[in-house]
Specification:
Layout (H helix, E strand, L loop, with lengths): L1 H31 L3 E7 L2 E23 L4 E6 L6 E2 L4 E5 L2 H29 L5 H26 L2 E3 L4 E6 L6 E2 L4 E18 L11 E6 L5 E4 L3 E3 L9 E9 L10 E18 L4 E2 L5 E7 L2 E6 L1 E6 L2 E6 L6 E5 L10 E3 L1
Parallel strand pairs: 1-21
Antiparallel strand pairs: 1-20, 2-9, 2-14, 3-5, 3-8, 4-7, 5-6, 7-9, 9-13, 10-11, 10-14, 12-13, 14-19, 15-16, 16-17, 16-20, 18-19
Helix pairs in contact: 2-3
């Protein structure tokens, strides 16, 4: 009896295993029959302008070197590199002891000459002073006035102010150092408007004019994109690289773009090209190094190796491997495999 019970338990265990396996097989079969939903685009020939990309550098529209007109020891520089300044703001001051002494001397001399003039004037008007003496008195007053004006200017020149609104680019001199006449103390950069400088190969410069459309991408600001303005085209080639410099004007009202930042410059040339263009995201690169796209044929996914050309915004030219009318998977291709059944939305 014990043996019969054991056989019955074995029989029920076997039946349970068969049912479980059948259930798994059924679930797997249902899973395999599920159709993946994807988004497609029909390949069609279109007309796009030809674009080229270059590396550029941001430059200030205006850069002013601020300096003293006289020589002396710098007492204090009131700004630092990167400081924002307004037009007329005090930038630096020089030790003014010598200028103050000169002004005091000139003031005393002018007072003395003026007093003498007033006394001599009465004598001259009463015909008690010779003409030559009167001319001498007048000359001394004029000399004193000139000396006083020069002393005042000398004192004023102990201070320098920002000539424009902008930011301090570089600080060349510091407190305690001797400044020479016209030696830059700081440079002030105007950044409300900037220029992006790029070097263009000589074979491509002829395609660029002042109205060529451009797009500026600043990677340092998270890929910020700006539409470029008028282009200034250089006429002198670099003797070594045989390239021409261009400068693209851009607005910087937010003041977040700074001189020296690296920029990607995209220029859209006026000549246009007919071709098949699809979203860049649809093009992948396989382990073999070939570019490919997923296409749908009879409801199944198939891999097409393609040749790529120029980019235009977020689209890329397909030069081979794709014909007009083919449906290209542009979204959902991450889960696609060769021969898989797919449903295009």
């Amino acid at each position: 009896m014990h043996q019969n019970m054991k056989n019955n338990l074995h029989f029920f265990y076997t039946i349970a295993m068969v049912i479980a396996c059948a259930s798994c097989s059924s679930n797997e079969a249902n899973k395999n029959t599920e159709v993946l939903k994807v988004v497609t685009e029909t390949a069609q020939e279109s007309n796009h302008g030809r674009s080229e990309s270059y590396v550029g550098t941001v430059e200030a529209d205006v850069a002013v070197a601020v300096s003293f007109t006289g020589m002396g020891t710098i007492k204090q520089v009131h700004v630092n590199e990167g400081s924002k300044v307004r037009k007329g703001q005090l930038v630096a001051e020089m030790d003014k002891t010598q200028a103050e002494n000169a002004l005091a001397t000139a003031t005393a001399t002018h007072k003395q000459a003026t007093d003498a003039y007033n006394r001599m004037k009465q004598l001259y008007e009463s015909n008690s002073l010779a003409d030559i003496k009167w001319v001498e008195v007048q000359s001394k007053v004029e000399q004193a006035e000139a000396s006083l004006a020069a002393a005042k200017k000398m004192l004023e020149d102990c201070y320098i102010y920002s000539p424009i609104d902008g930011i301090v680019g570089k600080k060349m001199l510091h407190a305690g150092e001797t400044a020479l006449p016209s030696q830059p103390v700081v440079t002030v950069l105007s950044i409300n408007k900037l220029k992006v400088k790029a070097s263009i190969p000589e074979k491509e410069i002829a395609h660029i004019n002042t109205d060529t459309e451009s797009n500026i991408i600043i990677e340092a600001l998270g890929g910020k994109s700006i539409v470029g303005g008028k282009i200034e085209k250089g006429v002198m080639a670099d003797a070594t690289t045989h390239t021409y410099d261009i400068r693209i004007n851009i607005d910087n009202t937010s003041a977040d773009i700074l001189p020296g930042m690296v920029a990607k410059v995209e220029l859209l040339h006026q000549d246009s090209i007919n071709g098949i263009y699809i979203p860049i995201r649809a093009v992948q690169r396989g382990a073999d190094g070939h570019h490919f796209v997923w296409c749908i044929n009879d409801g199944k996914a198939h891999r097409n190796n393609v040749g790529i050309g120029k980019t235009y915004g977020d689209r890329i030219e397909i030069v081979s491997g794709l014909a007009q009318g083919e449906k290209v998977i542009t979204s959902g291709y991450q889960k696609v495999s060769e021969g898989m059944s797919v449903n295009a939305e």
